[in-house]
């Protein structure tokens, strides 16, 4: 499983990350102009960008062939992909915290409640994105754009300017697990060579 994660991380080039970082900042400001600091949306979009790059259809097929030449089961492969998006979230948190710390050394914008809320929301949206991103190439490109549009417009249409933690967000863990199960069922029927 660690080999799968390592191969996926190595498949991402630094220039790919540098190219989408400006988009992350723009999207974060669009999604949260009323926030004192768009820190949480930076984490969300950076994580989504890293996940999208690692599941890029052309790159993913090359990495997938290498991975399945290793002694690994399809279920372990799916588990590694799902674990990888969680790793991306924590990595994006570290990078974003470093950037935000350079802007505001007091870090007054940080609250654990909002951070954990973003984590649960990311799990929820990843549950939708991952099966499409891995198995349905065209939908895998459309889903991130649709989710970003949804996030930006829901704030505008609902009149809610801030996100707050609610215990119902714990359901995202169950949905993430169901998404994993669905992905393992889909890959069982696929011939990967």
UniProtKB/TrEMBL annotation:
Keyword presence, Transmembrane helix: yes
Keywords: Membrane, Transmembrane, Transmembrane helix
Pfam families linked: ABC2_membrane_5
Transmembrane segments: 12-33, 39-56, 77-103, 109-132, 139-157, 163-182
Keyword Glycoprotein among UniProt keywords: no
Domain of life of the native organism: Bacteria
Protein name in the entry: ABC-2 transporter permease
């Amino acid at each position: 499983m660690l080999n799968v994660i390592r191969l996926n991380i190595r498949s991402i080039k630094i220039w790919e990350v540098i190219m989408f970082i400006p988009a992350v900042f723009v999207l974060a400001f669009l999604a949260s102009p009323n926030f004192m600091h768009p820190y949480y949306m930076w984490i969300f979009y950076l994580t989504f960008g890293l996940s999208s790059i690692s599941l890029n259809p052309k790159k993913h097929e090359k990495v997938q062939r290498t991975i399945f030449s290793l002694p690994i089961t399809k279920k372990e492969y799916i588990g590694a992909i799902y674990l990888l998006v969680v790793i991306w979230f924590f990595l994006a948190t570290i990078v974003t915290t470093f950037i935000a710390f350079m802007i505001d050394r007091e870090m007054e914008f940080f609250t654990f409640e909002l951070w954990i809320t973003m984590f649960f929301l990311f799990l929820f949206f990843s549950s939708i994105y991952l099966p499409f991103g891995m198995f349905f190439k065209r939908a895998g490109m459309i889903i991130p754009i649709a989710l970003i549009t949804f996030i930006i417009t829901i704030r505008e249409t609902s009149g809610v300017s801030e996100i707050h933690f609610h215990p119902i967000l714990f359901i995202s863990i169950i949905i993430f697990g169901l998404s994993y199960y669905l992905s393992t069922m889909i890959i069982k029927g696929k011939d990967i060579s």
